[in-house]
Amino acid sequence: MLLIQNIRLSRILRNTWQVDLIMIASCTVSYLVREYLISHHFSVPSIIPTLLGTAIAFFIGFNNNQAYDRWWEARKVWGALVNDSRSFARALLNYVDEDEESVKRMIYRHIGFLYALKANLRGTIDEIYTKYLTEADLKEIEKHNNKHNALLNIQSRDLQKLSKSNAIDGFRFIEINEMLTRFSDSMGMSERIKNTIFPTTYSYLTKVFIWLFVVTFTLVISEDAGPASIFLGWLIGFVFVSTQINGMSLVNPFENNSAGVPLNQITRTIEINLLQMLEEEEIPEPVKPINEEYVL
Question: Which DSSP helix (H) or strand (E) runs through 240?
Fold first, then answer.
């Protein structure tokens, strides 16, 4: 997630330079075609780039709105995980009587659940979660593809044991069990966002229309601007392309990049909070911003 208020132009160019080169080449070819092939036969009506520009603005605006909705929903889901995780640990620490070992094991297992879920959403191999699990837990989840879901199942079983041993009363059992249900809901919503592909036609058609617009715009203004139409065509195209790329960077909010939801930071924050609630001595450092620009 980006932290800085003002983004340097150099950063934008690093993300768009390949497209910029292709646009400059397209504008150059368009200028040469107009100058040496079609200028004596007909002229391109200015209404064409005007209509295309209007259509592109609607397409980009719609795509960016939908992309941001996906990003914001993902951020709300993980914000809920932060709140529920703290409540879960607090409930176990204060409601369970005379079974500190089980409480500690369940809180540790919850930290492992968060790291396993994060690794799954990021599509990375992250074994951090294993240090918070017992040998029995690791052996049980080894046969599961969805390890974070398997960990929730173990949590439910341990909660049932606490209820049968009268370590918690019925009301508090229901309250803590509802938290486990909310964890499952958040897990499912995260997986839905990750596995639901943004309609490819939206992005593809927007790109096609931008190229058509750049070419026709260059053809139209080359009559008056001459060779300068190459630069002007690229400049206008750069505005549309940059805006479109900015929106598409939010389509996959769990990607491990500067535009994604900062899962590393959020997970580490929960880890620190829960370990401090357990009064542990070894507390990891918070995740620090990279180059003071963004946090993963």
Answer: helix 228-248
